[in-house]
Amino acid sequence: MGLRDTIKNYFKSEILQDLTVQEANILAAAKGASNAKSKHLEYEAETMQAQTLKEWKQAIAMATDPEEPNRQYLEKLYKNLLLDNHLSSIIDSRILYCQRSPFKIVNEKGDDNEELSYLFERTWFEDFIKYTLMSRFQGATLIELFEVNKETLELLEADEIPASYFNAKKGIIIKTPGDTTGWPYKEGALQPYYIQVGKNKDLGMLAQMAPIVLAKKLGMGSWLDYVEKYGVPPLFITTDREDDTYFNKLLNAAKNFKGNGFMVGRGNDKFEVGQVGNGNPDNFDKLAVRCNDEMSKRVLGGSGLTDEKAYVGSSEIQFRLAKDRFESDKLLLKNVINQQLLPRLQKIHTAYSGLNGHYFEWDNSETETREGIREMITTLAPHFELDPEEVSQKTGFTILGQKENSTIPGPGKEDPNKKKSVTGK
């Protein structure tokens, strides 16, 4: 290396050290470079293998190892559990409730800032909500905030570091599962770009729900075995031919017709389809229903919201139980956003510098329906003077003025010609 290159590299390193995180991100975005660690992980092909209680015990033991915790097998177990449609659906209910809830960015006085709120009406923020709430189910979750839009300098996406690629106890991101060294994310240069939700030892709700989900999978598999063995009627073939050549032809024909459940005999050729077994499959179905109910109780607080035969009163009670969990999720999100997300956004992205002195809040103002507004106006109009502009704003109709022949409805008067009863009343 020549003297010129030495001097150039020296001043380059000195300049980079003086750059703020925001300025470094601007240069990286302009160059199109990405130092996101999620882009440098050595991912492995996913294999969908059957999981049993033995794998569950092994995964828990490895994930809770006091010296070198490894969540590789726990992650595989969780992915297998989430293949259950009922479990995924009730988890989505928890997540979608928060994703669809209105929010606002307010200042210290509580005034809403629509421009700042608009910055969070993005796909990356919905992903952030999902990853944060998934910590309830899968334990400690690591969220990456790195990719920036080159034009707007806004955050482009929020990504998740898989559980097998970070060690929460050591606070490092590892390149391959099982590594003992990696990139530290709780301190140093990477700290502003990563948010860990959940404590280091948290394994999530799925660790407790695994036995009931695996029991359902076993029951469904047994049901399929039952259908395969007894659900398809057998085929009977009889023939009076004695030569082996013809016999083998019938045998091959039967094999091509059905894989099993058939019989070949001698005598006149006769083909008969047997009767299906009269076993009762309700035992399998009841097991699946019971497992679904247990999962609903754990995630939503009850099975009334997922039971199609639930009564109205029971469903209302169940929704109140689920509402407690929804509100708890919203509180978790609010704390994570205000304590971790907003400070990081201000530090690493210039587009969010206006967030200083502001915080995230859920918009819990009641949404008024047109029917409710109409009833309210009908009730107040006979007794009070209403502001036409406010009424127009709420109803969406332009009020030009009051008609001269308009009358205010009052209490009805009794018709003097109305026929009286026999008692004279």
TrEMBL record:
InterPro entries: Portal_Mu
Domain of life where this protein originates: Bacteria
Pfam assignment, any one: Portal_Mu
Chain segments carrying region Disordered: 395-425
UniProt name for this protein: DUF935 family protein
